[in-house]
Amino acid sequence: MFSWNVLRTVGATSFTVSADGAVTAMIGLFKLGRVACSTTMDQQWRLSTWRISNGWRPLSFQGKMYTLHTPTNGSELQIFQIDLPGHGEKEDFDRILCYLPAPKLIATCLAGKPQKPYYYLAECDSEILVIGRYLSGSLDVEVYRLSDIILDRIAPVTSIGGNALFVEERVLSVSSRVHPTIVGDSVVHLHNKEIYLGHYHLATGTWLPTADGCVIRGVPSPCSLIYHIFTCCYRPTWNKGGLLYQGNVQPSWKVKRKWREGVSMIWNTSMVANL
To answer: Domain of life here (predicted)?
Structure first.
C-alpha cells in the first residue's frame, strides 16, 4: 500500500505539446520510484513499468528528466535521461501501468570519482550541475558540470557564475548579484559539525556562516532572508510558513492533519498487485 504522502512527492515535471495540440505530461514521483504519465487523450494517470532510484530527487530540464543511480553501495554513479514519450510511444499496460521509453544512461562516473556519498542534481545558468558532499568528516563539497562528466572530464568547478546553490531536500540557485548578502560561487547548507547555516566557497574550500545565529539556539529576529530561501528547499516546513531548523523540523498542520499527512489515505494494493 502507498500512503498519500508518497504519492505526493513530486520531484520533477515535464510537459510537451504536439503539432496537433495534444499535451503530454510526466511527473517524477521519486519516493515511489516511478514516473507518472498522462496525455490530454487519457482519463487518468498511469505509472511507468520501470523504476527510477528513490534515493535522489530527479531534475526537470528543457523538457527532459534526469536522475541519479548507484547500482550497489560504493559503485559508480550513473546519470540517466528520461525523455517524454513521442507519438505512439506510450502504451497502456493495465489500469495502473503503462509502457514508456526506458531511461537512457548518458554518463557514468567511476567509483570514487566523484567520491561523495550524497549527490544532488541542480540547474544553474541553463546547465545541469552535479553536487557531491559529505555529511561528516571533511564536509567538503564538490560541484561538477554534467556536460563535462559526459565527456569524461570529471573535475570539480570553482566557479558557478557568481551564483549560490542552496542545498536541502531540493536545490535552488540564487544569484549573488540580486542578493548582495549571498556569497557567489558557493554552496549553502547546514554545517553538520558546528550546526550553523553556512556557505562553502568552491574556490577556496572554506566554510563561513552565511547568516547570524546558530540553528540550535535560534536566530535573531527578524532573521535574514537567507533562512527563508533555505526553507524553500524543504517543502514540509515551507508550506506551513515555518523556518527550517527553527523549532520542529517538520511542524504539523493545525487543521485536517490526518488528510494532509496521509495517515488514512491509502492506495488499495489490489490495483497495483504487479508493482
So the answer is: Eukaryota
Which residue has 530540464 as its cell numbers? 61
- Contact residues for 34 (Cβ-Cβ < 8 A; gap 6+): 47, 48, 51, 52, 275
Question: Could you tell me the pTM of the whole model?
Answer: 0.81
Inside any domain, residue 47: yes
Going by their DSSP bridges, the two strands 2-3 and 266-267 should be labelled as antiparallel
The DSSP secondary-structure symbol of 19 reads: T
Domain range for residue 31? Answer: 1-112
Residue that has been written with the C-alpha cell 504519465 in this structure: 37
Question: By the 8 A CB rule, do 79 and 68 touch?
Answer: yes
pLDDT of residue 73: 64
Dist CA 237 CA 72 (whole Å): 32
Task: Provide the sign of the torsion angle of the four alpha carbons 159, 161, 164, 167, taken in this order.
Answer: negative
**pLDDT, tens digit, 9 for 90 and up, residues 155-193:** 899 999 999 999 988 899 999 888 878 899 999 988 877
- Torsion from C-alpha of 238, 163, 191, 208, nearest 10 degrees: -130
Radius of gyration of the chain (CA): 20
The angle subtended at Cα 44 by Cα 22 and Cα 9, nearest 5°, is 100
Same domain, 85 and 194: no
